[in-house]
Design a protein that fits this description.
about 325 residues, alpha+beta, 6-stranded antiparallel β-sheet, two-stranded antiparallel sheet
Length: about 325
């Protein structure tokens, strides 16, 4: 069936800061390189990024593969998960991709690599900056800046005209809000929000998306529309079309963890770029086993239930509204 768009917002051309919704976009671009034979899922990324060699916890050298980056088992972490502003990533000056850091795409991986891994690659799942490293990989292999590479590899062919790392039309970008009493308020420049208790939190820069000099964060740095993301999700739901071969789409949606529940995500495993629903009952969701889903810190959610032939994208401009079913109060695009 064709795509249907349900508009519960003022303008379907409205662009949103994607935050972690950037991850499936950049992961797909990396898999296009895999399909072209230019990147190897099992290959040691030091082949392409020799400067990215973070040590193991005991100081010995580590071997990290592309697969481990995309499925978040590389042993990396996030700065915003650290308990205070004096954590290892903070001391190294690592950027989480949503702050006004003033560093370049090549510099951030170097800083990440200066900090020992939390665990040996492939031994444990941990949500992390691993999604930013494929951005540097893509740029290196494709030989163009990341924004151009992503456009040529996948967003251009799919007609995702409004998705990129810089928004040059501020009037079309949704204002970011934070939940507050008695009503939501605008997110301030440099404001820190606490996504998890006991963590230092994310230092947000809403203006970052307008700064052409800000490095293109593969894990959190894009802006786009609900319709653009729906084009990508529908392409993947229907088997990849001319973008990706079906076996890579299946691998993308296969649980790569296979072990116990992920932290704070009962009933879920993780594929190559997004969550995969293992147990709807434990997750307390009405979707089918195997459903893909993810969200973003600015207030977004999406899921693809292939068994039901359904893709749903819910973009909001209010932080912490990114879990089903609350986010679906603001559905912008749905395809049955």
């Amino acid at each position: 069936m064709g795509t249907q768009v349900v508009d519960k917002g003022p303008d379907l051309r409205r662009r949103f800061r994607l935050a972690s919704v950037s991850k499936p976009v950049v992961s797909t671009a990396a898999l296009v390189l895999v399909a072209q034979g230019r990147l190897d899922l099992e290959g040691d990324i030091a082949r392409w990024l020799p400067e990215f060699q973070p040590p193991m916890p005991d100081g010995t050298p580590a071997r990290i593969t592309t697969r481990q980056l995309l499925n978040h088992t590389a042993g990396l972490g996030y700065r915003f998960f650290e308990a205070d502003a004096d954590g290892p990533y903070a001391r190294a000056g690592v950027s989480d991709g949503m702050d006004a850091s003033g560093i370049g795409l090549a510099e951030n991986p170097r800083r990440i690599a200066s900090v020992p891994l939390r665990n040996a690659p492939g031994t444990s799942w941990g949500y992390s900056l691993a999604a930013d490293v494929p951005g540097a990989l893509i740029e290196c292999i494709h030989g163009t800046p990341l924004d151009q590479a992503v456009h040529r590899l996948m967003s251009g062919p799919l007609g995702m005209r409004d998705t990129g790392f810089v928004a040059r039309d501020p009037q079309r970008v949704a204002t970011a809000y934070v939940n507050a009493a008695p009503r939501p308020r605008r997110l301030s420049e440099g404001e820190t929000a606490l996504p998890f208790e006991g963590a230092v939190g994310i230092a947000y820069s809403p203006s970052r998306i307008f700064d052409a000099q800000a490095f293109p964060s593969g894990g959190a740095g894009m802006a786009g529309t609900a319709g653009d993301l729906l084009r990508l999700l529908e392409t993947l739901r229907q088997g990849g079309g001319t973008l990706l071969p079906g076996d890579l789409v299946e691998e993308m949606g296969r649980d790569q963890t296979g072990g116990p529940d992920l932290p704070d995500a009962p009933g879920f495993g993780f594929g190559l770029g997004f969550l995969m629903l293992r147990d709807p009952r434990r997750a307390a969701l009405p979707e089918t086993t195997g459903t893909w889903r993810w969200g973003g810190a600015y207030g977004h959610a999406w899921f693809v239930d292939r068994a039901q032939g359904l893709s749903v994208v819910a973009f909001t401009n209010r932080m912490k509204r990114c879990r089903y079913p609350a986010a679906l109060d603001h559905v912008q695009a749905v395809s049955p």
